[in-house]
Structure prediction request, 784 residues.
Amino acid sequence: MKKSIIISGFGGQGALAIGKNLAEAGMTEGLYVTWAPSYGPEMRGGTANCSVVLSDEPIGSPVFNTSTELIALNEPSLAKFESGVLPGGTVFVNSNVISEKIHRDDLTAYYIPCNTIALEIGNEKVANMVMLGAYVAATGAVKPETIETMIQEMFAGAKAKFIPLNIEAFHRGMACIG
Amino acid sequence: MAIVYEKSKGLTDVEMHYCPGCHHGIIHKLVAESLVELGLLDEAIGVCPVGCSVFAFKYFSCDMQEAAHGRAPAVATGIKRTHPNQAVFTYQGDGDLASIGAGEIVHAAMRGEKFTTIFINNAIYGMTGGQMAPTTLIGQKASTCPTGRTVEQAGMPIRVSEMLATLDGCVYAERVCVTDMANLNKAKRAIKKAFEKQMRNEGFTFVEVLSTCPTNWGMTPLKANEWLKNEMAAYYPLGVIKDISAEVK
Amino acid sequence: MAKELWKGNEAIAEAAIRAGCDCYFGYPITPQSEVPEYMSAHMPKHGRIFVQAESELAAINMVYGAAGCGMRAMTSSSSPGISLKQEGISYLIGSEIPAVIVNCMRGGPGLGTIQPGQSDYYQATRGGGNGDYRTVVLSPANIQEAVDYVQEAFDIADQYRNPVMVVMDGMIGQMMEPIEWREIPKRNLPSKDSWATTGRKGRAEHNTLNSLYIEPELCDVHNQNLSRKFAEMEKNEVRWEEIRCDDAEIVITAYGTPARIALTAIEVLRSEGIKVGLFRPITLWPFPEKALHELAGKDHVKAILDVEMSSTGQMIDDIRLGVEGQKPISFLGRAGGVIPTVEEMVEAVKNTLKEVQ
Prediction:
């Protein structure tokens, strides 16, 4: 198994965090993982993307031109990275932000209204957790339980009140995949 | 036979290389005596500059580091931060401190680094052969301003003590000279006071010593002393520039 | 031991703390600013010293002062900032003061780019400061190596009383990877009592640190002593890695991130039946010249392909010295923050192979 994932959006949308969560979960399951960010002078509001590799073999290059999956959180990201997805690959689109459909017919696309779902359960900030749920359900790259445990560890102590919210967002994202 | 005078234990037996009439030797002695009298010699770590006093590490009998040109305050920061209870000092000339090392001295003072800087201002580059320093007076001749320093060409000379005194981290700045016994005694009191304040962790302490360079000024030692008192001290006034005691703070 | 996911720059800062780094002096510059940030938060917790210096120049001289007192001292920066430290590195060597300097390299010249680069190879291995000198230069290709080498760098520095550089491109600094905190090999390290300026504290003679030897004869002796030390480092510290070179017709030479990309390119090429391997210098100085010479001399090796994040090629000079004309050498270089891709490397290997067939 080798997943090469591009996650891209505006700065602040949580693209880097989704990637980090996937890398962390992959590591917990004993996979080889790398997380490589694009980094630039813009600290907020610019585009932010990261490249994540999950593999059962040691990883050479942490960056790549062709991905097995793309998680696009805004339109520039879809425009930039759709062409690099490998034939048969999967694209995850935040349909609240991106109005268009993907252009290729050799890819599977999931359109996830991440922000609507996040607002429904009470906090738009967990939109990225909805997307993570969709990704995990569709690809099976890591086990849902691993992410759930990670959420519980991430919000230990004073932040514990955020655990149910994040778990629910993750589950609602998973439920988007039929 | 009664001993009436003895070389300070703060100095080694190495013969100094300074020119006749130069004040470095006297100032070395005052620093060395101050360390001994305050009981700091065994703890002290000094940093010497690039310039005439580049060999000061051989003359002071405490542990010494030789720094790159102008960087002594950064070096002393590294020493003092890791040895906060020990006496640390830099001994720097005007080219080293006021020109190439202007950034380092300003920031050490700004941070309130708890070491003492002895600044030797003789208004010229000595070791390299008499070139203009940032402290060279208007009209004063030097090998890189052969007809005398002009404001148009080089601006007005820098008064380092006054400049550093504007920084809150600097708690003590005094300008002294060693041209006669009265001034020499004042200079020694200033140096001791700076070390005492350092050891009380009050902040950055600075003693500027106006000094002669008969060789590069082209004067006899006595004439040089006169010129220092009449010309230099007129532009660089002697006395306490700043003194904030810990109690006042 | 459990694996932990760490960002390169934060990992090396933590590694330094674990190696007993007493003090860190730094200045912000992308892409290494996470190092001073991490140090500012964590050094005080361990009772250690952190100072944000007014410049890279001041930072390396703070290292000089503290390390001169026997402290384990470190500074880090990225390429333009490392240029400013060259004076200090030369003085550290002249005064024989051990220290660790990390360069999280970006593209140049001048301000260049904040993206990863490898254009400081000459500066690191030839010495960007004045005088005859050498530093051991370690170049990790992943974050596990980065944390291991930073820890070892303190020991190597102390063993030889000489600064050690760790150079890693911006990608290694910015990326995250799982690591384990593992024991590094123990070295028998000499005492610093005979030279460290700690205050005399009853010692009969004062300790002095100095790089000025005004008498030519004495300065010559000093230089001969230093060069004997450099020869010792050359003998003891050289490191490299050979991957799938046993039957390789094309040998890729690369370090840092390009070496990892080469691993993926090798997989692609091997799946097409092309025999290719990787020769990866781990110490850029001392360079594994003999090992490369031997490898290049083997019958199955037809050509060498050097890959660097440098437009002119810098390591290629050492590759040429090692290969000594035994086999042709071709070059793939991307600069300005562009990382060579797997596809480019695959194509370059195929072109190299075509030329020798």
About this structure: Chain B has one domain: 24-243. The interface with chain C takes residues 12, 41-45, 47, 54-55, 57-58, 60-68, 71, 74-79, 81-83, 86, 103-104, 106-107, 111 of chain B (CB under 8 Å). The domain at 24-243 of chain B is CATH 3.40.50.970 (Rossmann fold). The mean pLDDT of chain B is 96.
